[in-house]
Amino acid sequence: MYGVTAATPLLQVDDLHVEVEGFEILRGVDLTLPVGELHAVMGPNGSGKSTLANTIAGSPGYTVTKGRVLYQGEDVTSWPVDVRAKAGMFLAFQYPEEIPGVRVSQFLRQAVSARQGTDISALEVRVSLMEWMKRLEMDESFASRYLNEGFSGGEKKRNEILQMALLSPDLAVLDETDSGLDVDALRVVAQGVREVRAEKPEMSLLLVTHYRRILDELKPEKVHVLVAGRIVETGGPELAERLDTEGYEGLG
Fold it and tell me: What residues contact residue 3 under an 8 Å CB cut-off, 6+ apart?
């Protein structure tokens, strides 16, 4: 890691202001994520949760007007998305895009090779791919399908966790991975996240969600409440329980 010590958080967001198409969405976000912890960001629609996730990952179209993003002690605010990905940052998209003509196995081989900085053999990737597809209750034929083309919502979300497992990032940002999942699919996805964390306990996760139900499965150390572009409250899992009954009214 880049100059990380026990006292250095893996991710630190300082006074982050972000515009999208000229509109200010984030209005001074402060957030710290230590090594090996899972934190959740909750908030109502339009609060800026996905903007925060995409800005951390360096997605194009999100303009930082003030503040900074530190990753492993380095200021990465100006780093492009591919450089962040190679450095170990991963974003699971809320709405994964279809890529016709590119098979899942082909995409993952290229992604893993880029992440590790060396050409990984198709056999090596396939062995790991088969193992993780079994864990995620995915049929073996999935590897030969075109990326996200014709996938159900649950298949798309499992595919995001599959990518996370093979890429083995240091930081994973999961943007509403629970969105659109039924109870059974949610449990499979949550189990996949737990197994990835078990194999790499030093990995940190930032989980963006509307709902408490995935938090019941994954047990975050902290919950941050984002309202109108600012973190207005931070607490433990009990905060998610309170939001579940009281909602966001009165916060912000």
Answer: 72, 73, 74
Domains annotated for the chain, with CATH where assigned, are 11-94+170-246 (3.40.50.300)
CA distances from 236 to 57, 94, 224 (A): 25, 24, 9
Reduce the DSSP state of residue 56 to 3 states and report it.
helix
pLDDT one digit per residue (tens) for the chain, 252 residues: 555 555 789 999 999 999 999 999 999 999 999 999 999 999 998 899 999 999 999 999 999 999 999 999 999 999 999 999 999 999 987 777 778 888 888 988 988 988 888 888 888 888 989 988 888 888 888 888 888 888 887 788 888 899 899 999 999 999 988 887 888 888 888 988 999 999 999 999 999 998 888 999 999 999 999 999 999 999 998 998 888 888 887 676
How many C-beta atoms surround the C-beta of residue 154 within 10 A?
A: 18
| Three-class SS state of 189 | helix
- Cα separation, 123 vs 19, in Å, equals 44
Beta-carbon contacts of residue 83 (< 8 Å; ≥ 6 apart): 58, 76
Strands 74-75 and 89-92, bridge-based pairing:
unpaired
CB atoms within 10 A of CB 51: 22
Beta-bridge partner residues of 223: 40, 235
